[in-house]
Write a structure and sequence with these properties.
The protein is of the alpha/beta class. It has 25 helices and 24 strands. Helices cover about 60% and strands about 15% of the residues.
Length: about 700
């Protein structure tokens, strides 16, 4: 028998190729596990080619490592058949580990099939040498090689299945497993080679017309390494791309979740908004209809929030709203819903065992709000008015339930606030009236149903008219002349005050221009600005446009803002007022003495006039405190160089007191009622004609 030897370098190379092929197989198994759709099969086909070439080349290089005393060659067809067997076995293995589960019987079957395939590939490759006489195999070693092939295949399948997911340190684990698998594959190969015996007179039949062994090892090695490298690189790049795609997908999912949250929740408090509340109400109604029971919808409106907001600014008001939300939420169960649907309005949806339970719950809500709030070192006291609608009974839709709870809340406010009220059918009348009034108000803006009445202002010392205050009236088609108290609050709540205010400003300037042309050049027309109008970004431009449109000197226009409005955000107010002052517009602080002024800010405000609130003037004759307050306001105004105007003058004694005190001008029912422009001027001319004879006699 011939005794062969092995090239140590090729043996080492075959081991390296086996480890590299094993790692490639493990990596591709992981890639296949994360692929979806047709991509799974594409990866299996590509992986089978790469893995098959790798395993086959390891065996081929191992055979080339054998040194015999005659030239070796390999039959092309048989060699190609062995490569095909390797590719098919690899494809089967990759398909098997791509399954969701790998039970023991399936693992055993796969090990037998794959082990048989590898063994078949090996011994087919040996047959490619076409030895004469044929190769004699030792039965014991032959059987051991088959067992090693099956065991190595089973271990490889189990390892590949367990390491296919991207877990922490998975690549390190795959590297270690690849070394174990590579040693097992090499062990099977060289066990099979050891089983082969060659007769003394043997010669290689394929050496004449087959592949020559000279230099073939280098060609196979380079080709194999290129195939495996390409497969690994493709897998790594694709995995990285998928990871990046997954990150982007996660980011997109998170962004969508955040957008959905924002769409369904209040930005300030984080509570559900009107949209989410309507959905929760619908779900609660369906649950009651299917399972029985009942629930209450409680409409909570804060009493006294607006004065706090006006006095301390929106920032502190927002903090107060957040604190209210937190306090109300503390008293809720997990399946109850607290929502903020706008401004200082909250809605509570709560499941009840019986309708009477709503009574105690409403009392608790009122008591919770009654407790003082500590916000930014300010102790704030507010209260709540709660309207309650029950289901079943008080509405058939979420919208109807909300509307009825809202109506009950307004009824609670009408009873004195700081309490609660259950919905009654009669309350719908008021709600419908408010809704109809809002629609009529929108029509009034479009159809210009508003009119201005003018109340004269007189010089306190001489009694000569010095101008007028423009007062808004609504000529309602059905209800007649409506006073501002009827609709101004609704206009502010809906934002209609902005177009209404612009109309008032324009109409007042138009009328003042007519008087200016008639010779009343020293007059000033006073226009009241609402808080919302004053905060509107277009105020300064609107004033400038009205003055330019009617060619009216800026100092002929007086803009009146309340003390509270001016102090709401003192720095912002200062900026707006300074722009108006620079334009030449006259500025008046209305209702002075009723707000929360800072004398430091008051000194800085570019105002021309202080207007004493009628509340102090009304009881001037009988209340020493009011007289003292008025005296102090006049003294303060004089010290700051401001004109002093007193409104609400209705008696001679009031007129005398205010005149002696040093007020510059007066207005009130004693001196003149608000009238349309024609009636206003008629009274002015009669007063001028009455004074004319006196001037002549002088």
């Amino acid at each position: 028998m011939l005794i062969g030897s092995y090239s140590p370098s090729l043996v080492v190379i075959s081991l390296f190729v086996a480890i590299l092929a094993s790692y490639t197989a493990l990596d591709l198994a992981g890639r296949i596990a994360t692929a979806q759709g047709r991509a799974v099969y594409l990866w299996i086909v590509g992986g089978a080619l790469a893995m098959g070439v790798g395993v086959w080349s390891m065996h081929f290089i191992g055979m080339l490592a054998l040194r015999l005393p005659f030239a070796l060659g390999f039959d092309v067809g048989i060699t190609a058949l062995s490569l095909l067997i390797a590719v098919l076995s690899s494809g089967f293995a990759l398909w098997l580990v791509s399954q969701a589960r790998l039970p023991a019987w399936q693992l055993l079957f796969g090990a037998l099939v794959m082990g048989a395939g590898i063994s078949c590939m090996h011994y087919t490759g040996m047959a490619a040498m076409r030895m004469t006489p044929g190769i004699d195999y030792d039965p014991t070693l032959f059987g051991a090689s088959l067992l090693i092939a099956v065991a190595a295949s089973g271990a490889a399948l189990l390892i590949a299945f367990n390491l296919r997911r991207n877990t922490p340190h998975v690549r390190l684990l795959r590297g270690g497993a690849a070394m174990v698998m590579g040693v097992a594959i090499v062990g099977m190969h060289y066990t099979g080679m050891a089983a082969a015996s060659f007769a003394d007179a043997s010669y290689c039949g394929a050496a004449l017309d087959g592949l020559s062994g000279n230099g073939l090892d280098n060609l196979v090695l380079v080709t194999t390494l290129a195939v495996l490298a390409i497969a690994l690189l493709t897998s790594l790049l694709d995995a990285r791309l998928e990871a990046r795609t997954a990150v982007l997908a996660d980011s997109l999912t998170q962004a969508n979740q955040e957008l959905s949250h924002l769409a369904l929740h209040d930005m300030l408090t984080g509570l559900p908004n009107r949209s989410l509340l309507a959905d929760r109400i619908q779900q609660a109604m369906q649950a009651v209809q299917e399972q029985g029971g009942c629930f209450a919808l409680m409409f909570i409106d804060l009493d006294g929030f607006k004065p706090v907001n006006d006095a301390f600014g929106h920032h502190l008001g927002d903090q107060l709203l957040r604190e209210v939300g937190l306090r109300l939420r503390e008293d809720l169960r997990s399946h109850d819903t607290l929502a903020r649907i706008g401004g200082d309005e909250f809605v509570l949806l709560v499941q009840l065992n019986q309708p009477d339970d709503a009574l105690g719950l409403a009392e608790r809500q009122v008591q919770l709000i009654n407790r003082a709030f500590l916000v930014a070192e300010h102790e704030l006291n507010i209260s709540a008015s709660v309207g309650i609608a029950l289901f079943p009974g008080n509405g058939a839709t979420p919208q109807e339930l909300l509307m009825n709870a809202d109506a009950a809340m307004y009824h609670a406010k009408g009873l004195g606030k700081n309490g609660y009220s259950f919905f009654d059918v009669s309350m719908n009348t008021n709600a419908r009236k408010q809704l109809q009034l809002l629609q009529d108000l929108r029509n009034a803006v479009e159809q210009q149903q508003f009119r201005l009445y003018y109340q004269p202002k007189f010089d306190a010392a001489s009694g000569i008219a010095v101008g007028a205050e423009a007062l808004l009236r609504w000529e309602h088609p059905q209800q007649g002349l409506l006073m501002p108290a009827t609709f101004i609050e609704l206009a502010e709540k809906t934002g209609l005050i902005i177009p209404i205010g612009e109309w008032v400003l324009n109409e007042a300037c138009r009328q003042m221009r007519l008087w200016y042309v008639q010779g009343y050049e020293e007059w000033r027309i006073a226009v009241n600005l609402s808080a919302l109008q004053f905060c509107h970004a277009g105020l300064v431009n609107s004033v400038a446009a009205a003055l330019e449109r009617h060619q009216l000197p800026a100092n002929s226009l007086t803009l009146e803002i309340t003390e509270t409005t001016a102090m709401r955000d003192a720095d912002a107010s200062m900026n707006v007022l300074q722009q108006l002052s620079d334009m030449g517009v006259d500025l008046s602080i209305d209702d002075f003495g009723t707000g929360y002024s800072s004398l430091m800010y008051l000194k800085r405000l570019p105002a021309n006039e202080l207007k004493i609130d009628r509340g102090f003037v009304r009881d001037l004759e009988h209340d020493g405190d009011d007289a003292a307050i008025v005296s102090a306001i006049v003294a303060l105004g004089q010290a700051l160089g401001l004109r002093i105007v007193a409104e609400g003058v209705e008696t001679d004694k009031q007129q005398d007191f205010l005149t002696r005190l040093g007020c510059n001008s007066l207005q009130g029912y004693l001196l003149g009622h608000p009238l349309p422009a024609e009636g206003f001027m008629a009274n002015i001319r009669r007063a001028e004609e009455a004074a004319a004879p006196d001037k002549v006699s002088e």
